[in-house]
Amino acid sequence: MKRAGTQHRPFPVRRVEAVVLGASAGGIDALSAVLDGLPANWRIPMAVVLHLPESHESHLAEIFAQRLPIPVHEALDKMPLVDGCLYFAPPGYHLSIERGRRFSLSCEPPVLFSRPSIDVLMASAADAYGPSVAGFLMTGANEDGAEGLLRIHRAGGLTAVQDPKEALVPTMPLAAIARHAPDHVLRLRDLRILLQLLEPAHAH
């Protein structure tokens, strides 16, 4: 028997343990649009890589903490992922997720000229969570994230890409689409709907 309201869902219910998101040029506005309206009782941990100059201090956590009703942090080495929190990669470090559901920071060389690298975050999330992770990739000026999203796809996770026609810079979404057929290619407003329809994997 269908639960009330499910017939109106534009996407099938998907249970996940974590969400990883990546963007570059135009990414702050794109991420703001996708996270807009997030409920205060949101329960899935989310990790984000936005490309920033390594030499600049990041204020992303403070900016989004003012916009969202959930806890927002800059990720620290060995910090555990807590349900319902949003984490940003610090500038100058690769951010990955260990199988023990903790973050790891490293100073390995840049990937596709980027550190933090979206590929590094997404590939590690695929290894840590397998089919229970969702990856969202949005506007950007290089191909970072395409390989990571493919890794999520191969692990059985959910992959979603911003419609290149809407992206401020379409290079990143187009690169991802060239690697595999994402589960969803959507405008930002529909990526927001998709995100908010995700349910915690451990929900009863």
Automatic annotation (TrEMBL):
EC main class here is hydrolase
One Pfam annotation reads CheB_methylest
GO biological process terms, alphabetically, are: chemotaxis
- Gene3D superfamilies per the record? Methylesterase CheB, C-terminal domain
Record lineage: Bacteria, Pseudomonadati, Pseudomonadota, Betaproteobacteria, Burkholderiales
Per its record, the protein catalyses: [protein]-L-glutamate 5-O-methyl ester + H2O = L-glutamyl-[protein] + methanol + H(+)
Q: Tell me the organism.
A: Variovorax boronicumulans
Protein name in UniProt: protein-glutamate methylesterase
Q: Does the keyword Hydrolase apply?
A: yes
Which superkingdom does the taxonomy of this entry point to? Bacteria
Q: What Enzyme Commission number(s) appear in the record?
A: 3.1.1.61
Which key words tag this protein in UniProt? Hydrolase
Q: From the Swiss-Prot or TrEMBL record, what is one GO molecular function term?
A: protein-glutamate methylesterase activity
Could you tell me which InterPro entries the record lists for this protein?
A: CheB_C, Sig_transdc_resp-reg_Me-estase
Q: Name one GO cellular component term.
A: cytoplasm
